[in-house]
Amino acid sequence: MSVPATALLETPGYLVADSRGRVVGLVECPMYGTEPDLPDALSVRRKGFLFAHRRHLVPAATIEEIDETAGVVELSVERDALRSFL
Q1: CA 4: distance to chain centroid?
Q2: Is 38 a member of any domain?
Q3: CATH at 56
Q4: Torsion (CA) 14, 17, 22, 26 in degrees, nearest 10
Q5: Closest to 12 measured CA to CA, from 81, 58, 62, 61
Q6: Parent domain of 55
Q7: How far is Cα of residue 31 from the mean position of the Cα atoms in its chain?
Q8: Residue 16 belongs to a domain
Q9: 86 falls in which pLDDT band (50, 70, 90)?
Q10: Mean per-residue pLDDT, 49-64
């Protein structure tokens, strides 16, 4: 299940969990690629001191659900399947 692009605009600060319930990190900001005014991915910063500068690219197609009451983005893939960048 893919979420609407406008839902990605409201997720900075949300916790991101993979399909097994493991924490991936916190949403930093939406990322734009195919269209300049609609985001199609999220930049997620890893939690922890050692990997504080690593980020994951979370495409909108991998998001299973956004729980606004709990502030959690649930993914349909494991965190090992996500691309990382600096």
Answers
A1: 14
A2: yes
A3: 2.30.30.240
A4: -30
A5: 58
A6: 5-81
A7: 10
A8: yes
A9: confident
A10: 82
Q: What are phi and psi of 35, to 5 degrees?
A: -130, 140
Report yes or no: 7 and 65 within 8 Å, Cβ to Cβ: no
Rounded to an integer, what distance in angstroms lies between the CA atom of residue 2 and that of residue 66? 10
Order of strands across the sheet that contains 38-45? 63-67, 72-75, 15-17, 23-35, 38-45, 55-59, 83-85
- In whole angstroms, what is the distance from residue 85 CA to residue 65 CA? 24
Task: Supply 79's token pair.
Answer: 């965190």
Nearest to 26 by CA among 50, 58, 1: 58
Give the tens place of pLDDT for each residue, 23-47. 999 999 999 988 888 899 999 998 7
Q: Which two tokens stand for residue 15?
A: 């916790």
Distance between CA atoms of residues 65 and 81, nearest Å: 17
